[in-house]
């Protein structure tokens, strides 16, 4: 394959000559037995990729690298919370994974059984994930910061045989005990796991439940020399379930396959992220999110790279910590989220430049809209390309990106790039259901089936909900909806304009709250903003903005707050017109977000309208919602 090819041709081939294209990509993966069919799409919208092929995710992530990379770093665990740093070579990782797999076997875990992992960002969580897929068991990682209600609903949905957990996580120097939350969740849940494997970090009280809880360290001792071969599973065998963030409603259990996911990740490392085997990948996400699954654990390891698992804040001991790791481990590719970039933006940029970043090729950001001021600030601070990419838990890897590994292309501010190969992306007019072909006209971002390999197979245990939720919202057509708005410019670059349920209707004008936020965040005093629609007797809805100022003292008294409000309204007037001007601008210290850093507009809006904010189990900081209430009072 030539080093650089024409992206348009590459993309067209992925759609027009789908099977040949993906058969080529599938060569990046080890198959124990070749597949019969590249894509079985006999029963739309259910796609079965590489059916008949036998493979194993753990084999591809770990075992196959023992030839040639046994002594190379595979997993680098760094905790600035416990001041621990430990690197595992591929050989050591394989040994730890086999020990964990033997523990699972001793507890009766078999192919197809679910294992729920409720853990902080420690190496054992990685072992637990890889050991599950090694046996053909299905893991479901639940973010360690969730409380018992969120955990209980996932226990009931996934019905795990075994739960793996730890005594505690740590955040900002404070111990966050897990055990009582876990016990409470199991108490609340209808389903009861047979066993709970507890990793004791010595941080908090454990109080084992007799007959249910087992100690990881003690069991590991018994299986030090365990040899547990990989279970060869069909490519379509589920590898994991992962629940969406719950920004818009009840989380959905995204079910992923094995072979398709493996192929998709291997290809993405080459065409999008451009990490080379032997280099180090650093994703600052959490294993509780999709980015953690795809680009902390599986993607880098499948690609023979070392991966950093980091427990701690981006600002402790100081805002230079991530960049010191880049220097120390010669990180070549870094992946983070705009929300983290905005945290760093409040710090002195000098922290980011005191380390040698010469190994770093690019910083990728995904998960929410990347506003231009943040992107520019970050690019100036680290002097590296900042590459936005757009995807969802459902897709498992990017729908939109710049595929520099295929053909280098410029980025455009505010755009996550072009449609990624394999995704037959269309913009759909919401009212008519017709496809929008002219540039710069807003539509719902949708895709023709089949979705490429790596995307969700279904919603766990609920095929009907899968079809109804994702494939039935576009009039008269079976098309996948992302539920995001976007436009495409004449060069094929997309711009994400927010979620379809974030549109407000002011006196007959339909406005995206995202566009208003973008405008407000261009004001130099603004650090962060959330805009929601609030019911209004006269206008139907009005926009309300909640703003976090870079310097809170600017709105310390009513007169100066009023001044800031007017300055912000003026910015919106000038950029979008008076129709988009928020009815009020209020100042808060922090905004309500999910634990993955996404704005909870749904909850803010409910509070504004005096309604019950509903399911808050995925919310980060309940005090943030109280600040909104206080501002409205
Ligand atoms: P739920 O589906 O449960 O409401 P969620 O959509 O927040 O939760 P995720 O799958 O974690 O769960 O998030 C995917 C969404 O995040 C996308 O649909 C989009 O709205 C947003 N997003 C992701 N990346 C980007 C990006 N680069 N630019 C703009 N928005 C993005
Ligand atoms: Mg979503």
Automatic annotation (TrEMBL):
Provide an example Pfam family for this protein: AMP-binding_C
Ranges of residues in domain AMP-dependent synthetase/ligase? 64-450
Report domain Acetyl-coenzyme A synthetase N-terminal positions: 7-61
Query: What GO biological process, any one, is recorded here?
Result: propionate catabolic process, 2-methylcitrate cycle
**Which GO-annotated molecular functions does the record name?**
ATP binding; propionate-CoA ligase activity
Keywords, A to Z?
A: ATP-binding, Ligase, Nucleotide-binding
Q: Supply the InterPro entries for this chain.
A: ACAS_N, AMP-bd_C, AMP-bd_C_sf, AMP-binding_CS, AMP-dep_synth/lig_dom, ANL_N_sf, Propion_PrpE
Q: From which domain of life does this come?
A: Bacteria
List each copy of the AMP-binding enzyme C-terminal domain by range: 515-598
Q: Which PROSITE patterns match?
A: AMP_BINDING
NCBIfam families attached here? Answer: PRK00174.1, PRK10524.1, propion_prpE
Family affiliation = Belongs to the ATP-dependent AMP-binding enzyme family.
Protein name per Swiss-Prot or TrEMBL: Propionate--CoA ligase
Q: Which organism is it from?
A: Malikia granosa
């Amino acid at each position: 394959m030539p080093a650089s090819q024409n992206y348009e041709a590459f993309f067209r081939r992925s759609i027009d000559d789908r099977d040949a294209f993906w058969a080529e990509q599938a060569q990046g993966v080890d198959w124990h037995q070749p597949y019969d069919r590249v894509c079985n799409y006999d029963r739309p919208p259910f796609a079965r990729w590489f059916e008949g092929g036998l493979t194993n995710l753990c084999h591809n992530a770990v075992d196959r690298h023992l030839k040639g990379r046994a002594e190379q770093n595979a997993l680098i665990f760094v905790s600035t919370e416990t001041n621990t740093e430990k690197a595992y070579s591929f050989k050591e990782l394989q040994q730890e994974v086999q020990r964990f797999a033997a523990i699972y076997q001793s507890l009766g875990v078999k192919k197809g059984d679910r294992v729920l992992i409720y853990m902080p960002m420690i190496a054992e969580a990685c072992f637990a994930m890889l050991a599950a897929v090694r046996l053909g068991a299905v893991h479901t990682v639940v973010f360690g910061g969730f409380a018992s209600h969120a955990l209980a609903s996932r226990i009931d949905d996934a019905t795990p045989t075994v739960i793996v957990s730890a005594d505690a996580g740590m955040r900002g120097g404070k111990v966050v005990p897990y055990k009582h939350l876990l016990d409470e969740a199991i108490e609340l849940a209808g389903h009861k796991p047979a066993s709970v494997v507890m990793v004791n970090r010595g941080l908090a009280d454990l109080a084992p439940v007799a007959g249910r809880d087992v100690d990881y360290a003690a069991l590991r001792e018994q299986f030090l020399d365990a040899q547990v071969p990989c279970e060869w599973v069909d490519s379509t065998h589920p590898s994991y379930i992962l629940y969406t963030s719950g920004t818009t409603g009840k989380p959905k259990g995204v079910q992923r396959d094995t072979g398709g996911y493996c192929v998709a990740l291997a290809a993405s490392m080459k065409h999008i992220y451009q990490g080379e085997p032997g280099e180090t990948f650093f994703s600052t996400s959490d294993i509780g999110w999709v980015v953690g699954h795809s680009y902390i654990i599986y993607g880098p390891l499948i690609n023979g790279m070392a991966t950093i698992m980091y427990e701690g804040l981006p600002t402790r001991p100081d805002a230079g910590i991530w960049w010191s790791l880049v220097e120390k481990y010669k990180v070549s590719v870094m992946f983070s989220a705009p929300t983290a970039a905005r945290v760093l933006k409040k710090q002195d940029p000098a922290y980011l430049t005191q380390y040698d970043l010469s190994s770093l090729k690019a910083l990728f950001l995904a998960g929410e809209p990347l506003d231009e001021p943040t992107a520019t600030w970050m690019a100036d601070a680290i002097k590296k390309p900042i590459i936005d990419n757009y995807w969802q838990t459902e897709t498992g890897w990017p729908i939109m990106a710049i595929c520099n590994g295929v053909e280098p292309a410029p980025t455009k501010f505010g755009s996550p790039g072009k449609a990624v190969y394999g995704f037959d992306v269309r913009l759909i007019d919401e009212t008519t259901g017709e496809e929008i072909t002219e540039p710069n006209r807003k539509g719902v971002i949708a895709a023709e089936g089949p979705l490429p390999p790596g995307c969700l197979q279904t919603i766990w245990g609920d095929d009907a909900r899968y079809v109804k939720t994702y494939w039935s919202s576009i009039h008269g057509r079976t098309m996948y909806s992302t539920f995001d708005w976007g436009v495409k410019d004449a060069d094929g670059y997309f711009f994400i304009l927010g979620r379809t349920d974030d549109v407000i209707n002011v006196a007959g004008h339909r406005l995206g709250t995202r566009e208003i936020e973008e405008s407000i965040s261009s004001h130099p005093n603004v650090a962060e903003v959330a805009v929601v629609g609030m019911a209004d007797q006269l206008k139907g809805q009005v926009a309300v903005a909640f703003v976090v100022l870079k310097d809170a003292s600017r709105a310390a008294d009513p007169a100066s707050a009023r001044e800031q409000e007017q300055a912000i309204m003026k910015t919106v007037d000038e950029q979008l017109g008076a129709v988009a001007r928020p009815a009020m601008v209020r100042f808060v210290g922090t905004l309500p977000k999910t634990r993955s850093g996404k704005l909870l507009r749904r909850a803010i809006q409910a509070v504004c309208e005096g309604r019950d904010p509903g399911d808050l189990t995925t919310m980060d900081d309940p005090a943030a919602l109280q600040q909104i209430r206080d501002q409205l009072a």
